[in-house]
Design brief:
globular; about 15% strand; alpha/beta; binds pyridoxal-5'-phosphate; seven-stranded mixed sheet; single chain; disordered C terminus; about 400 residues
Length: about 400
Amino acid sequence: MNFFEDEINKVKEQGLYRSLRTLSSAQGPEIEINGKKVLNFCSNNYLGLANDPRLNAAAIQAIERFGSGSGAARLISGNLELMEILESELAEFKGAEAALLFNSGYHANIGVIPALAGEGDVIFSDELNHASLIDGCRLSKAEKHVFRHNDLGHLEELLKTSSPPNPLSSLSKRGGRWIVTEAIFSMEGDLCPLEDLLKLAEKYDAMVYLDEAHAMGILGKNGEGLAPSDFPPNLVSMGTFGKAFGSYGAFVVSSKSVKEFLINKARSFIFSTALPPAVIAASREALRIIQNEPDRRESLWKNIEYLNDHLPSISSPSPIFSIKIGSAEETMKISNRLLEEGIYLQGIRPPTVPEGTSRLRLTLMATHSEAQIKKMTSWIKNYATFSENGDKEG
Ligand SMILES: *Cc1c(COP(=O)(O)O)cnc(C)c1O
């Protein structure tokens, strides 16, 4: 047996084996997997925009005008006017000075964090941060501290005991402190206490890097996310187009000087081909729809309320519900049985979530009907006793 097969077998023994499921339909509340129609309750397409005819038309139009590829990185010959227009629309949407596009949320996090926080800086990172944030922190040469999930008391302790910031100002020299966290946590579905966190950051002369991947399009009066509408100077925020926007790519919102700095220093920005025109145009159309059609958000929140009422044991303040099972094997067993019944709810296991907290991650969309949610809810209830047995296993 070779090394790779050996490793795969180990993964299988731990109940952590992953394989791909094949779709043969467009995204929507109902999708086709392996030739079978199933209800989709594990997509981040929260507003149902991923197959919206208007996004599709915008993409087709952009291809006809600008072609399929962007040809180069933006600093070479790939910087299309359309990208700059989208950036200024985003900055306005967020009430900030500037926005900068990135090829994906993953690109943004692994490029921005090591650029902003280097040697001599200190990073404070929430323990449940997404893998891309963790990788960004790992790539950074800054000193790193992990604080307990959403625990501002613990964060303050760490801020107090870590090396003091540069007395001049955290931004005038290296010696800055960066708090790295998420607006809506991707696997828990809970929210970061941003208002208090920003105050704490101010008290300790720290900057905040906020990942709003799951909050964009969902939270805020116009879907602008969790960051306050008068964008604070000590905040840098990241949002993605791959989730509620139904497109692909990401952006970072900041002051003008941070944007300029990132254009010069963020390696994932500098050394990667720019997003294709079709993707930019689709994201722009999504931004327009998100701002002009609050009823989509209202449908989503109505669905969230419905599920909170009917499955109070897994209540959530966001479209992400976490059904904790515990054991990885048990989680996959339940996920597979639900799929046989036509309900697709992907099991989530380590290292995506901490050891012993394997779960079904249930996500709602604005476009789910009440009948579809009802059907899913009754199947989950069928398996509730099933799942409680798994609680104590690692
Ligand atoms: C999905 C996700 C990302 C990555 O964004 P992509 O655009 O999919 O690469 C980053 N952070 C969080 C919290 C996410 O959930």
